[in-house]
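Hi team,

Below is the intake form for Cyclic di-GMP phosphodiesterase response regulator RpfG from Roseovarius aestuarii. Please confirm the fields before the structure is written into the shared record.

FORM ID: S-0412
PROTEIN: Cyclic di-GMP phosphodiesterase response regulator RpfG
ORGANISM: Roseovarius aestuarii
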Amino acid sequence: MQSHHQFSIASATTVVRLGEILGALSHALDLTEGQPNGHCVRCCWLGMQVAQVLDLTPTQLSDLYFTLLLKDLGCSSNAARICALYLTDDIRFKRDFKLVDSSARQGLEFLLNHTASQSGLVQRLRAVSNVLKNSDDIVGEVMQVRCDRGAEIARMMRFSEDVAEAIAGLDEHWDGGGRPAGLRGVEIPLYSRIALLAQVVDVFMAELGVDAAIAELKTRSGHWFDPDLVPVFIELLLRPDFEAEFNDPELEALVFASEPAHTGRVVDEDYLDEIASAFAQVIDAKSPFTHGHSERVAQYTDSICAEMGYSTERRRWMARAALLHDIGKLGISNTILDKPGSLTDTEFDLIKLHPVMSKEILSRVSVFQDMAVTAAAHHERLDGKGYPDGMSAEDLTRDMRILTVADIFDALTADRPYRPAMPLEKALSIMDDMVGCAIDIDCYAALQDAIAKS
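The structure came back. Fields below:
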């Protein structure tokens, strides 16, 4: 029996399903991994189909469900390191890596095709040599960071230790050749084993089709995969109606409405705050230059709102918008985010897509839909020269103007790839010149008042 929990937002009663919230936000994780839209949701559907033949309790089914949806929670934490070590586009690297098995031949081909491919010959040879020489340590480091961070964020969102450990064990292999702990056989959590199988099936379905997915399951059975689970997945893929169900436009709605999506979990205002804070950690882990950015913007936003007389309820809403305003940056390569020099026109055009992606992702979440437009407007200007929509002053709400001031202030006073953090006086001097053309005078005055009080 489904349990629809209710809570109030801005004096409106809203039905909230945890599966819908986190499933919608999982689209941001797909961006980071370079996967087609809905990858985590499809993995959830695949894994839960298989779970129907396993003897799992309702609690175990719920834990498996959220392991599948959130398997990539730690994916942003190694993006900058991949970019630095392999001198490559982290998103393309991650996308293509999911098609590689553990054979030496495929590994070497992947390495040669994805290491410093846009660099000069000398730099490329140096990078390839370094990766070959230190491959075990490098792969171990990259996987460890991802797995540890994913488990940590799952705990932040109140999930059980079983879910956290399953996310940490996603890259373990049945034969002990996986990472980061080299677990073997049934030492690997069941949820991890199911999630890895579901991931590979979805990746190969998207790239090469069902026959290729089945062939890959057979090839990796007993090596990567639990040999007892492989036949269950193959039986699923051979169902006459499988491809029609898998490609059904309503699949996501079915996943979000299923019983495990909300069993035993009440989503209230406090929990929504924790979810927003947890995803802010995912966002800010993408680049060392954005570490803590979303949380600081939320703090500055709240201070401005307090100075401007916002209600406690509205301040809470604004803080969530600030925490999630940059979620679209998960879809931008670190070759751009961390570039120390000036961006090319093409690169800047890509940067300008991140608020568009933020809006698209937040609009998927019923309880965040009304903040999606506000969050996406943090690079708009009063003079209409901002992005992505070039909104005019008349179109910019006070909420948008507050978030813009908070975002600019943190951008100036934090380290960036191309310059160190500015002293407070210099940052305020720059913002003085932006009043009236880029930022709102009243919102900026409220920020100054808040700074003076602190």
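SUMMARY LINE: The domain at 269-453 is CATH 1.10.3210.10 (Hypothetical protein af1432).

Thanks, M.
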